[in-house]
């Protein structure tokens, strides 16, 4: 039974390949000529869908890489002449230049503190620069007229049809393998919640850069084939208008479906060839109106809407098996603080949220951070887990300063953070979320789904206590607030950190669940030497599990002492609980 979907997919691919091979026997020459181009455009649309529909990267630059691939062949043949060596060299050059340009764009567009809109703007500019470079190339690039009439491969039109059709089929199949794999789940996780991915230790900018470079290579291959078939290339192959059309085709076909964008690209380009000549302006108006109607009535595109009409009852998916790995022994040199904070400050202009924060915490300590609302507790957690958040001072993890390190780098130093509100992946299953949390320990495969997840005993205990172990196949969005809190805690524990930052980890849990979570935390401290910094409002819970307590008030440390000292302090009661201090005698 487990092989049934794979078998069905294999049969579907075989039928599609057979149709591509046989279709030239039934089509006229004009249809074959147009479909060759349409198939190549469809392959690029698939890459746009993977970038945008699955990873959330809206790029208008795939047209540019298509143009680079086309010009790599055209320039090589025009300047040197056609030979097997030149053809292979042009292919390698087109792919390499496209990948390098894409990596440069990724470096600019996926930097720290950059919004998702930035990559869209940069790729639009990229297309403009490409066209201007072609214009300024004079006779070398053909300027605005492009290049034409150069020697090309001795392949029949039917042969090119089969090459282009199988290329599109390969793009769809390889794309489907990727997006259904564990690595594909990571792409969705980045789209849904990039921040949580970074706090799982995943360098999301690098992942998106590799994806963009891979998509650029596929687009360059399509451009190379287009130039080899048509022996005519022009600057508009890589302009932003073509890049925008690709995005529109993906939106019409249905983001996140692969087959929808591929079909939309082929059908719209094929219809344009027939109707564009007789109804040039009306046809563009029709496409625009269809786009508006689809976006308003079917925001997910036509593909998902059509598929939902024929969809039968969803097939039950067996959840992966859970395995237990040994909890890392984190107790180290008792003389070395697990985390050391000196002179830490955070201010926004003249507003000082934190000022002069100094403390250390050692392995085997559970230090609770308490204080009234607005005391700066969550801000302090942010400053400890992200080097760019501090305005001043220093933070060191096990003797290593974090400097201005990004969250993923802090995680690699042994830090784990749970947020105040549940910070999870809403559209993933519980099992997928846990697998993403284990990505640093267990590499995510780009071609298959793992059948089991190895978790530390502490993470499994959280799952068992809250019932999540029986909900591994459930999408996170269907969980209660308390279950999401427990899932995030399990995800953080799955990373096996040595310093754990918890911002109200038991909010929304029942009393019994809170007691059990408290037991897990104290066990991690006592048996495994973990250092935990806990932000919590429940003083009773804090009293039961803490090694010591730090009280924050107005951005400063008011008191740092034992549980007895803090809970018995009249000053703390007056500041934290709102009880007035007794009048002096």
Please describe what this structure looks like:
It is a multi-pass membrane protein. This protein has about 575 residues and is of the alpha/beta class. The chain has 2 domains: about 240 residues, no CATH class; about 240 residues, Rossmann fold. About 55% of the residues lie in helices and about 15% in strands. It contains 21 helices and 14 strands. The strands form 4 sheets. Strands 9-11-12-6-13-14 form a 6-stranded mixed beta sheet, sandwiched between helices. Strands 5-4-7-8 form a 4-stranded antiparallel beta sheet, covered by helices on one side. It has a two-stranded antiparallel ribbon with strand order 1-2. A hairpin with a 2-residue loop joins strand 13 and strand 14. Helix 2 packs parallel to helix 6, helix 2 crosses helix 10 and helix 15 runs parallel beside helix 17. The chain is elongated, with a radius of gyration of 29 Å.
